[in-house]
Structures are given as C-alpha cells and as structure tokens.
Amino acid sequence: MSTIGLVYLGSEDKESKTTVLTEYKNILILRNKTQLLEKLPQLDGVVIIEGENNKLSEVCELIMTIKKQSTCLIWIVLTSEKEMDKLVCLQLGADFVLDKESSKMEKELIVKNALQRSGVLAENHQNSDKSGPYHLNNKESFRLISDNFSVVLNDEVEVSLTKLEFQLLVVLYQKPRMTFSYKEIQRQIYGDDTEDRQYRIANVIYHLRSKLDNAIGSERGYIKTIRSRGYMLDV
Predict the structure, then answer these.
(1) What pLDDT, in 10s, does the model give residues 63-106?
(2) What was the pLDDT predicted at 161?
(3) 193 and 131 in contact (C-beta within 8 Å)?
C-alpha cells in the first residue's frame, strides 16, 4: 500500500484528504516542512497544494528539499494558472503540476498511474542491483578513512564523523547506488539485536547527510532516501 504525504501551504486546512485523494487510505497530512522531513523516508509520493496568496516560492523550496533527500514522486496543485509557474515547478523536478480547476478524478488518476508506473521502475531498478557490481569513475573522489572515522570528498575536504555515522556510511559504501533496506542496515550495524532501530538510523542519516553536503557547500545529495525501501549512496 502506497503512502502519500499531503502538504497544504494555505493559512487554513481547506484541502483535506477527503477532497483531494479519496481513494487512498494511507494519507499523511503534513502541516509544515519539519513534519515533511520527518516522514519523508516513509512516503511514496508528496502532494503539495499551494493554497491562497501565491506561495510559489514555498512550493519551489519544498520541491528542492524533497529532490535532495528522496526519490519519491512529487505532485503540485497550484492556485495560479500561469504557464510560467508550472514550468518552474517542472524544471525543479516536480512530476506533474495541476491547477485548482483540475477535477478530483483527474488528480486521483494522475497519482494512481504514476504510482503504478513507479512500482515497475522500482522493481526494475532492484533487479539491476543484483545483476553485478557497479563501475563508477567518481567513487575515487569519495574515500573512507577508517583510522579516524572520516571521509575525504573530492580529494581535498576531510569530514569527521562519529563512529556510528562512519559505520553506517561503510554499509552504504559497499555497493554505491544500490538501495540498502532499513533491516539490512540495522543487521550490519547492530547484529542480531531485534529492537526496531529505524528511527535511530533515520536520525543518523540526517546528521550524516548534513555533514557531507555542508562540507563542500553543495546540495548534491550524497545519500538518497529511496521511498519506502531504505537508503542509497550516490557516488
């Protein structure tokens, strides 16, 4: 069952899940950016509704934030009917942009078709992960230093990590661009401990991602959240 986040940027929550996506039971109403970031690893897609007062800048900021940290689908519902506003959202990475005149059925069909299609793509990607090792030219610019728990980026910037951050990075580094599930990460770090540590892993990922991206002043996004599956090191 797909999980969809719904973010309404208006001053009032006029767009509830019953008026936007009636077909889906797993709808998370997210009140702000903080809630979105907390729930992002669980989401297959995000619907962002602009609301009144032309909040295009906030819409754009959310699109960039999501694209940096996740591969989930992004649908935008704009108040404005300006073609340029739609183009801006699409250029930033939104998967589809609707306007306020779009019918409820149209919205639901777009979401349903996209989720079905992405399920096929995700399966194909997972199968390709098993087909053999990756040969990446840029892995050399991302070096782990085990002696002092650090990583060197672009052969010039060394980033110090905590022991747990380093251990988690080692797991992802084994097979770059391959998705590691939460359970697989937990097994490799904590062994046979049966306690659910998904929240702990997500918290470590958050700090690790911040350190890597801030070190070189880039929004490149070394660690990707693969929706509903786990994490991937993109080097």
Answers:
(1) 988 888 888 889 998 887 777 888 888 888 888 888 767 666 66
(2) 92
(3) no
Coarse DSSP helix, strand, coil percentages of the chain, rounded to the nearest 5 percent: 45, 20, 35
How is domain 4-129 classified at the CATH fold level?
A: Rossmann fold (3.40.50)
> Tokens 């019953």 label which residue?
18
Rounded Cα gap, residues 139 and 175, in angstroms? 10
Look up residue 2 and give its amino acid: S
Residue 93: other Cβ atoms inside 10 A: 12
**Helix segments in 75-156, DSSP class H:** 83-92, 104-129
Which token pair is 15? Answer: 């767009």
pTM over 0.85: no
Q: pLDDT tens for residues 113-157?
A: 777 665 544 444 444 444 333 333 344 478 888 878 888 888 788
Round to whole Å and give the CA distance between 123 and 113. 16
Longest dimension (CA), the chain: 59
User: What pLDDT, on a 0 to 100 scale, did the predictor assign at position 160?
Assistant: 92
CA distance 224 to 177: 9
Q: CATH fold of 137-233, please?
A: Arc Repressor Mutant, subunit A (1.10.10)
C-alpha pair distances (Å), 133 with each of 123, 128, 129, 172: 18, 10, 8, 14
- Separation between Cα atoms, residue 30 and residue 172, nearest integer Å: 29
- In this prediction, residues 206-210 reach a mean pLDDT of 89
Domain ranges of the chain: 4-129, 137-233
Backbone CA torsion sign across 86, 90, 93, 98: positive
